[in-house]
Amino acid sequence: MFDWKTRCGLSLSLILSCLFLVAVPEVRAAEEKQKVQQTGGFLPVLPPSPSSSELEKQEDLWILDVAFKPMRMLPLELTNPKTGNKERRNVWYLVYKVRNVPLERPQDTSDQTPINTEDQRRIGQIFVPEFELVTHDNDRTQAYRDEILPEAVSLIAKRERLPLQSSIAIAGDLEKTDSNEYRYGVAIWTGIDPNTDFFTLYASGFSSAYRINPENGSLQKRTIMLEYARPGDKYEEIEKEFRPKDDPEWIYRPAEMKVDQTASK
User: Fold this and answer.
1) Do residues 222 and 209 touch, judged by C-beta distance below 8 A?
2) Which residues touch 252 (CB under 8 Å, ≥6 apart)?
3) Pairwise CA distance, residues 112 & 96, whole Å
4) What 3-state DSSP class applies to 130?
5) For residues 109, 111, 112 and 118, what is the CA-based torsion angle, rounded to 10 degrees?
6) What's the pLDDT tens digit per position in 58-93?
7) Are 144 and 135 spatial neighbours (Cβ–Cβ below 8 Å)?
8) pLDDT tens per residue, range 228-249
9) Residue 262: what are its φ and ψ, rounded to 5°?
10) Would you state the pLDDT for residue 112?
11) Angle at 133 between CA 132 and CA 139, to 5 degrees
12) Distance CA 96, CA 167 (A)
């Protein structure tokens, strides 16, 4: 039979354990809130991380610093271009920011690099973002391209309190932008299947890096991939925010063209 000291000790331990279980989620929530405040709600920046092969083979290689906010679904009142009437539409959107930081290259100590003063670079570092959202549900895959909806961009920009631009408006020569300056864009989709539980986002145009598949001659572009999982509900779609399962990553993905490798022979 326990004496009163033992019983008090067990009771105190039980109380402390309960307080710990209650406090841990609160601490984590506070840490998450502080992290969101520090980053402005953006996920960790995806660093350029060029490979030695990319640096060696592409003299004009550029890779942007990129960060994304969580994907959001928001009902908006948008104008129907055919009727001129306002209609409620569920919009999925992804806010991102980009910055063009010069890549660090190893110094060439051989002093054998040829110099051609006649040829000048004809184009700058042209940034043209492209987004493709691919759903994976019930053994069915469907792809959705980023839509250009100026009215939606304006409404989302006010909500996010950021100078957001569409994929067309943000496109341009990155050399005209300060390397310390972020530019903010938003990708928009409508008509996404409300039953969607799993989807993958592919974002290209954020790097000039490419490679050619020796097996079929297809061109592969350096592309950002984000994978998501969410519960779908087609009956009560309300504003939602969903984060990717993992941090964004760089991959090489086939472009919609092939390269004739014998053309220059």
Assistant:
1) yes
2) 211, 220, 221, 222, 223
3) 41
4) strand
5) 120
6) 888 999 999 999 999 889 999 988 888 999 999 999
7) yes
8) 987 655 545 555 788 888 899 9
9) -95, -5
10) 53
11) 125
12) 11
User: Amino acid identity, residue 174?
Assistant: L
Contact predicate 143/95, CB 8 Å = no
> 135, exposed or middle or buried, with CB in 10 Å at 0-12, 13-18, 19+?
buried
**What's the whole-model pTM score?**
0.75
What six digits make up the tokens of 166? 């569409």
Beta pairing partners, 75:
90
The H or E element containing residue 48 is none
- In this structure, is the dihedral angle defined by the CA atoms of residues 163, 70, 240 and 31, taken in order, positive or negative? negative
Three-state secondary structure call for residue 156: helix
Which amino acid appears at position 157 of this protein?
A: A
Instruction: Please identify which residue in the block is written with the tokens 């598949």.
Output: 213
Q: Strand (E) positions, the chain?
A: 65-68, 71-79, 86-99, 126-127, 130-137, 140-145, 172-173, 183-190, 198-204, 210-212, 218-229, 240-242, 249-258
Average pLDDT (250-265) is: 63
Q: What CA–CA distance (Å, rounded) separates 115 from 59?
A: 13
Which of 45-49, 160-164, 201-205 is the least confident region? 45-49
Pairing of strands 140-145, 218-229: unpaired
Greater pLDDT, 209 or 23 = 209
